[in-house]
Structure prediction request, 362 residues.
Amino acid sequence: MESIRAFLKKKDVEISVKRYLIDAMGAMAQGLFCSLLIGTIINTVGLLFDIGVLKNVVAIVGGRSYTVGGLAMAMSGPAMAGAIGRALHCPPMVLFSLLTVGFATNALGGAGGPLAVLFVAIVTGEIGKLVSGETKVDILVTPLVTIGVGVTLAAWWAPPLGALAMKTGALIMWATELQPFLMGILVSVLVGIALTLPISSAAICAALSLTGLAGGAAVAGCSAQMIGFAVQSFRENGMGGLLSQGLGTSMLQMPNIVKNPRIWIGPILASAVTGPLATCVFKLRMDGAAVSSGMGTCGLVGQIGVFTGWVADVAAGTKAAITSYDWIGLLLISFIIPAILSPLINAGCGRLGWVKEGDMKL
Prediction:
């Protein structure tokens, strides 16, 4: 047993929640951002501003036409697997072999491909690390084992995992359409909490293909966390803190939340208000990329995702036009309401002696 532990340590194989559910999932979200999400944004900018180089076909592969953004979107599987491999500290030949594994897994997993990529890339990456550098013909053995194991697992795991993710996401979206008030609260609060925790809300939304009204509630919850913490901690952190939390991530507050969890009350209650407002009043929908649902105001990705959905719906004829009511709803849900509610609730917590000056200092 000691020899096995020593070998795993030498190979940097760390079986832990942090490595697999925090580091790997966070990296997967970055891979999605740099492929599927940025590709969607490029396509939208091209269509919106009539930029030929962005909206015209630049490549035809297997009879399928691709724009610049389309090429980026097509590489989401390799991008996710490569990002996960980097988070697992895979050696170069394992890391490069994971690109093929990611492509195969994402393709076989369908709409639930991201969840399948997470599982398959983790297992394959760790197995690849175990064999890497162990033979004199490493240049052959490592990619053969990594790709062989990965593609086999992809064929075995990706279809059922993809189906499970799709059914789970569909169930959440169906429940939100059926009970928009209660599910608006539930989805908004839970996804918002996930955004602030050291896990990836974006990866969760992508894995579940969370779009529609449920996606809109997720945007509301994530935005409430980011804008809520940014505004209620402004006295302690100034403009730098406002921008780093409001356009970056509320995860910066996690060390302070550990010290005093009550500073979290304001953003959580704000998300419980904005969620049902999004689903019941403004009918805020995420008809763009599912990964955008879990991004909130990070780089305004959540709002851009909602906007790309509007553009796509107008182009498809399912939406007549983008109205002023749409914009008012997006601004109120994403920025104005959490910027007002969260500090007010936090001030009430201060009067109760639950929070004090300096509790949210970054």
In short: The chain has two domains: 2-167, 179-351.
